[in-house]
From TrEMBL:
InterPro entries, alphabetized: PASTA_dom
Ranges of residues in domain PASTA: 1-62, 63-131
Organism classification: unclassified sequences, metagenomes, ecological metagenomes
Protein name: Unannotated protein
Pfam families to which the protein is assigned, alphabetical: PASTA
Biological source species: freshwater metagenome
Amino acid sequence: MPDVVGQPLAQAQAAIQAAGFRFANPTQAASATVPNGSVISTDPAGGASVAANTLIRIVVSTGPEQVKVPTVVGQNEADATTTIKFVGLSVRVVPQTVPAGDPNAGRVISQDPAGGKMEDKGSAVTITVGVAAAATTTTTSTTVATTTTTP
C-alpha cells in the first residue's frame, strides 16, 4: 500500500489505483496541519502489506476547523476573554484610554474580527478594552507674604 498521506486527493487516488487497489468514496475531516483537499489518513495505512484489489478508505482534509466568532463588545475583559477562548480562539487585548468615570472602562469597546464571522480555530480575536485615564488633581498653594514693620 503506497503512503499517500499529505498528497492531494486526485494524486493519492491515482497512486492507489496504480498499485492495484480500489478506493472508497473519501470521508472528510478538519485538520489544522493538512491542507484542504489533501489526504489525512488511509485505512489500511501506507506501507502495510495488503492483498491486491483491497478497498482503501481515505480521509481528506477540509482544512482547519472553522468556528463562529462570538460577539463580546460591551462585556468586561474577563468575560470576553473566557467567551472567546471557550470556542477555541485566542485573544489579543489592546488597551484604549477612556476618560475617568467613562462606563466603557474595563469593557470591550470593539473587536476584530466582528462577532458572527467564521474563523479558523486557533485564530486570534483582537479586543479593544477601555482603560480609565488617571484622575488628575490640581493642587493650589497659597503664599502669604508677611510684613514686619519696625517703629
